[in-house]
Amino acid sequence: xxxxxxxxxxKGRLGQKAYEMFEKAGYECPSxxxxxxxxxxxxxxxxxxxxxxxPSDVVIYVERGAxxxxxxxxDIILEYSPDIYELCDLGIGKCRMAVAAKKDFYxxxxxxxxxxxxxxxxxxxxxxAQSRExxxxxxxxxxxxxxxxxxxxxxxxxxxxGKTLYENxxxxxxxxxxxxxxxxxxKVSYKFKNQEISELCDRVCAELVE
Length: 210
Ligand code: PRP
Fold this sequence. Notes:
- This protein is of the alpha/beta class.
- The chain has helices at 13-24, 58-63, 74-80, 120-128, 145-148, 163-167, 187-192, 194-209; strands at residues 5-10, 40-43, 48-53, 69-73, 85-89, 95-102, 113-117, 134-138, 154-159, 170-179, 181-185.
- The strands form 2 sheets. It has a 6-stranded mixed beta sheet. A 5-stranded mixed beta sheet has the order 8-7-9-6-10.
- Strand 2 (40-43) and strand 3 (48-53) form a beta hairpin.
- The longest helix is centred in the C-terminal third of the chain and has 16 residues, at 194-209.
- The mean pLDDT is 95.
């Protein structure tokens, strides 16, 4: 008997795009298109069960085995370092993690740099490699406000089009790392549902080269 694969999708645009890739690869689940507030959708025949979770929670579900596989941004993977397998780069959700500041920002190396971010671990690692002393200000959103209001000197945040920075008179100063969405798997599931997960991974990844 084919084993069911539990798939954690990130709620939002990225999750929709990822689901379309799964659909094209033959893992459709028509009930997902119904307009309702259900969070779990299943297609027994195809052996898949999808559920929508907060994007930053995908790795938690996968690490603990509540989901066998999931779609997670590289930003979340780098920030939380979950004990999971990264199976492939889906080539969607492309952006970059960057340092940004006001256009006239001048970096005084003699001073501790105040860094506002949603990604304290990524920021710490980046500045540690430069032996730069920093003060992390952990925020949960609208990070761009911090340098404008003088709460921080710089921000470490995701830049996609650069529009948010531009419209707030900020500019990217350094790129830390490119980001994209990854197909990730629980380590135990990968062993016990290997045939099913490998087949799904092959089929989804086959679309990438087309
Ligand atoms: C992200 C990020 C920037 C914006 C970048 O925010 O934090 O604010 O997208 O996109 P852009 O370069 O195309 O303008 P998100 O939408 O995740 O909301 P948040 O700021 O509340 O976290």
